[in-house]
Design goal:
alpha+beta, OB fold (Dihydrolipoamide Acetyltransferase, E2P), 6-stranded antiparallel β-barrel, 41% helix
Length: 334
C-alpha cells in the first residue's frame, strides 16, 4: 500500500523539477535584451579539392589526414616519367632547330656576298657597255645574274624566318611539357588542414580526379539561421559572439553575410524556433589574426551558440558571453 502511494509522489516531484527547469531556462532566455538573438549553429569552412589536371599514376602522397599545410607546400606527386622523356625529345628538337637556323643565317650571308659580287659585275659591265668595250648581250647576262642573286637571297631570308619559327615551336613544346610536369606536382593553394585523402600511391587517377581535400582555414565562419523578424533588422557588420559547445569562452565576431533568400530551417541544424518558420542563413566571422592565434583549436563542424546583436544601440552582452581566452580582444574590427 505504501509503495503504491510512493510512485505518484515521485512522478509529481519529477514533473515539478522538469517544470522548474523549463521555467528557469525560459526565464533566462526571456531575460536577454530584445535586440539580442541567440541561435544554434556550427563552425564551417571552405573546402578545396586537390585534383589531377591530367590522368596519371599517383607516385606519392606526402601528407596525412589532419596534417596542417601551407600555401605552395608539395602534398602529392603524379608520375611524370613519360613527360620527362617527351621533354628530352623536344629539347633535342630545339637544338636541331637552332642548328638549322644557324645554317640558314650562314646561307643568307653567302647569298648576300654573291649578290654584292653580281651587283659589282653589273656596274662594271654597264660602264664598259657605255664605252663600247663590251656587248649589250654581256650586259644583259650580268643584269639577269644580279636579279637571280636577289631572288636567291630573298628565299634564303625566308628560310631564316622559317627556322626561327621552328625554334619557337620547339621551345614552346618544351615549355608545354614542363608545365605539364609542374601540374603533376600537386601543391596546396591555401593554409589549411587535410580533411580527406581520396587516393593512394600506385593508383591511376583520371583527369580531374580528386586526390585530397583541404579545409581552408583562411575562410572559417560560423553559420546559423535567424527568423525573418530578426533578420530584417540585422546589418552587415553587426557585432556578434560565438560560444562553442564545451568551451567556456565567447569569440568576438561580426556578421559577414545574410542570405537574400529565406528558407525552412534544415533538419541538421537544431534551433529553438519552430520548424515551420522561414529562416535566413547568416554567417559570423572573427578576425583572421585571432584564428591564426588559436589555429590548432579551430574545428570545423563544431556546434555552438551564436549571439547576434540586431539593434542600433551599443550591444548589451550577457555575462555568458563575456569570458575570453587570455589576451584575446573584446571585439573585432568590421
Amino acid at each position: 500500500m505504501k509503495a503504491s502511494r510512493t510512485i505518484p509522489i515521485i512522478l509529481i516531484a519529477l514533473a515539478g523539477a522538469a517544470g522548474g527547469g523549463w521555467y528557469y531556462w525560459n526565464a533566462q532566455r526571456n531575460a536577454l535584451p530584445a535586440e539580442l538573438y541567440v541561435g544554434n549553429g556550427r563552425v564551417e569552412s571552405d573546402q578545396v579539392d586537390i585534383a589531377a589536371k591530367t590522368a596519371g599514376r599517383l607516385s606519392a602522397v606526402l601528407v596525412r589526414e589532419g596534417d596542417m599545410v601551407q600555401p605552395g607546400q608539395v602534398i602529392a606527386r603524379i608520375d611524370s616519367s613519360e613527360l620527362e622523356a617527351q621533354r628530352a625529345k623536344y629539347a633535342a628538337d630545339v637544338a636541331y632547330a637552332e642548328a638549322a637556323k644557324i645554317e640558314a643565317d650562314a646561307t643568307v650571308e653567302q647569298r648576300t656576298a654573291e649578290l654584292r659580287f653580281k651587283e659589282d659585275d653589273l656596274a662594271r659591265k654597264t660602264r664598259l657597255a657605255n664605252t663600247g668595250v663590251t656587248s649589250q648581250e654581256a650586259l644583259s647576262e650580268s643584269l639577269s645574274a644580279r636579279d637571280a642573286a636577289r631572288a636567291i637571297l630573298q628565299a634564303a631570308r625566308q628560310h631564316v624566318t622559317a627556322a626561327e619559327r621552328s625554334v619557337e615551336a620547339a621551345r614552346a613544346l618544351v615549355a608545354l611539357t614542363e608545365a605539364q610536369i609542374a601540374d603533376n606536382i600537386l601543391k596546396s593553394p591555401v593554409k589549411g588542414r587535410i580533411l580527406y585523402k581520396l587516393a593512394n600511391p600506385g593508383e591511376v587517377v583520371a583527369s580531374g580526379g580528386k586526390v585530397l581535400t583541404i579545409v581552408d582555414l583562411t575562410q572559417v565562419y560560423f553559420e546559423l539561421f535567424i527568423p525573418s523578424e530578426k533578420a530584417i533588422r540585422l546589418a552587415i557588420g553587426a557585432p556578434a559572439r560565438i560560444v562553442p559547445d564545451g568551451a567556456n569562452v565567447a569569440i568576438p565576431a561580426r556578421v559577414s553575410f545574410v542570405s537574400p533568400d529565406a528558407q525552412f530551417t534544415p533538419k541538421q541544424v537544431e534551433t529553438r524556433s519552430e520548424r515551420d518558420k522561414l529562416m535566413f542563413r547568416v554567417r559570423l566571422r572573427t578576425s583572421q589574426s585571432l584564428i591564426e592565434r588559436h589555429i590548432d583549436l579551430v574545428k570545423t563542424g563544431a556546434r555552438g551558440l551564436g549571439y547576434v546583436w540586431t539593434g542600433t544601440t551599443p550591444p548589451a552582452w550577457p555575462d555568458a558571453v563575456q569570458q575570453r581566452l587570455p589576451g584575446d580582444p573584446i571585439d573585432v574590427e568590421q
